[in-house]
Each structure stands twice: as C-alpha cells, then as structure tokens.
Amino acid sequence: MEMNLPNKAYMLPDAISNWPPVWWFWPLLALLILAVLCCAYLIRKRYKKSAYKRQAIGILKSEFAKKNPTEQVILCHELIKRCLLSTNNPELASLPMKALLPTLDEACKSQKFSELGDFFCSAPYNPKVETTQEQLETLYITTLHWIRSHHD
Q: Of 103, 114, 110, 108, which is closest to residue 147 (Cα–Cα)?
C-alpha cells in the first residue's frame, strides 16, 4: 500500500547515523576500561593474598582424617600457627595455645576454641588425653571456620 502525500514537507528526514559518537564517548570508554582493569587487579591481589588460606584448608581436609586424635590436634595447632605467620603475626604465633585462645576466639564469632575443652591445649603434650569423636569433629569444624574467617 503506497502512501501518496500531497507535500514533501510531511516526509521524515533521513535517520541520524550512530557514528561518530558524541565527544564524551572516548573519555567515558577510557574510564570504563580503567575501572575494569582496577577491579581485575584488586581481585587478583586479594586472591594471591588469601593463597595461604586455601593451602591450609586443603591440608586440613586431606590430612585430618588420616591421623590419630593427638596428631589431629597437633595438625590444627600447626595450621593455626602457619596462618598467623602468613599474616605477619609472629608474636601471636610464638604464644602457647592457652594464651592464644582469647585472640582466636575474638577472630571467630560463632565457633569458639575455648568451648572445645582442655584437650585442645593439652593433647599435644599429653598423648593419653581422652578425646571423643564429637570433640574431634568440633575441632575440625572450628579450625576450618577460623581459617576461613580470620582477617589478614
């Protein structure tokens, strides 16, 4: 169906092309690219900074079940101290575990090391300490939670 208009003035003008863009397009594009690069850099930096956490969690998950109860407690102590050394806290890592408990509990709100009982501090030094499977599971969960949640 063809439209016959009496006057060409009613005709629509030609479409405006999308290119070249407005003058502020290039600075905006440069800022957007810069923002993406900055975000990628920060994400990479954070990923590298938390590599020790991933390594400690991997060791805990792979080695915990293979050890006897005393060695399991020692493994948790070692991983906690390694994490403290990785975050440049050698003065905390050098403390005995009994003195370190309040600091560990402060970093971990829901799971508390002080609630584990006396076996957590005494098991590495007294292999005859009786531990139940429930205590060891709680120790595993608490250590895993602390590694994930403590701040660098």
A: 108
